[in-house]
Specification:
Bound molecules: guanosine-5'-monophosphate
Distance between the termini: 41 Å
Structural class: alpha+beta
Strand content: 15-25%
CATH topology: HIT family, subunit A
Number of domains: 1
Length: 144
């Protein structure tokens, strides 16, 4: 199978262009990070390259390197902000790989001993709750 073309109408492309809101955590010249609106754990974050790529199959190497470096930063911030015992990093590719939004992204999920991830319910989290989580992460990033 060949990887389909990038579609610039995907929801994360719209977030990157500022056309729809998000709870932003971090931004640099190549990457952008914000909270998942349907978190599987409090603090569930998403890290994206700014340049368009559908997933890991078509991303340019320097964008992948940049997004990996930012994923590490967010993972460290999550450990502090959520007093986590660990972090799960997940990255899905194509429908068979569980991908639903077609702009490359890494999930970064705080983990606590004995606590499973929440199932995907399709329900958006409370906006004020997400705002508080984003603030905690931005604060933690200052010490990274
Ligand atoms: P995928 O299955 O493609 O790896 O993950 C897509 C993720 O995007 C899901 O965890 C879903 O909750 C999240 N998501 C979908 N729509 C939006 C949105 O409009 N805003 C945010 N912040 N996250 C979204």
């Amino acid at each position: 199978m060949t990887t389909p073309q990038y579609d610039d109408q995907n929801i994360f492309a719209k977030i990157l262009r500022g056309e729809i809101p998000c709870h932003k955590i971090y931004e640099d010249d190549k990457t952008f990070a914000f909270l998942d609106v349907m978190p599987k754990a409090d603090g569930h974050s998403l890290v994206l390259p700014k340049n368009p790529s559908r997933n890991i199959l078509d991303v340019a190497e320097d964008d992948l390197n940049a997004v990996t470096a930012t994923t590490q930063k967010i993972a460290k911030a999550i450990m502090i902000a959520f007093e986590a015992d660990g972090v799960t990093v997940q990255q899905n590719n194509e429908p068979a790989g569980g991908q639903e939004v077609y702009h490359l992204h890494f999930h970064v999920l705080p983990r606590h001993e004995g606590l499973p991830l929440r199932p995907q319910t399709g329900k958006m989290a409370d906006n004020d709750l997400l705002a508080g989580h984003a603030e905690k992460l931005r604060e933690a990033l200052k010490s990274i």
